[in-house]
Amino acid sequence: MYMKAAVIYEAGGPQQLKIRQVPVPSVKEGWSLIKIKGFGLNHSEIFTRKGLSPTVSFPRILGIECTGTIAESTDPFRLPTGTKGISFMGEMGRAFDGSYAEYTLLPNQQIYPVSSNLPWPDLAAIPESCYTAFGALKSLRIQADSSILVRGGTSGVGLAFLKLIKAKFPHIHISTYPAHHGLKKKRPC
Asked: For the whole model, what pTM was predicted?
């Protein structure tokens, strides 16, 4: 069985991503096959595509996050066929092929079942950016009377952080600086 995938054979610009017919990965012990329904685009993938990730070898299918359904699993109790799930990072698209494909093979422990009615494109926008924003929120000692500056507040992670902080502290004062403008313009939320 074959699938479409965006494969990169050598470092360079976006033109290096080639749509190819490649074999669907075979399930191996401890891994599950995911039918991809959506994925995000991340800066780390751009760095890898440009050849700036020295541990990544080509050819490679990039993509460090995805949403989809379980097509086949070696853990049918936790990950039965048809289960909706997400996955992100964990060397996906780096040490092994990632989500720029119709299917990807992932370690079972890296697949998180989800119960969501969000459309696939919306769900695909959540995993990596929200996980990064949540990690930042947990590590900071923000109080209800804090004032916060979010540099890069127009980025995916910045917007996720803003939503999380406003959900926890609705009246907190936040200022943002868009990533593409540096420190030139102040935009209060």
From this structure: 0.84
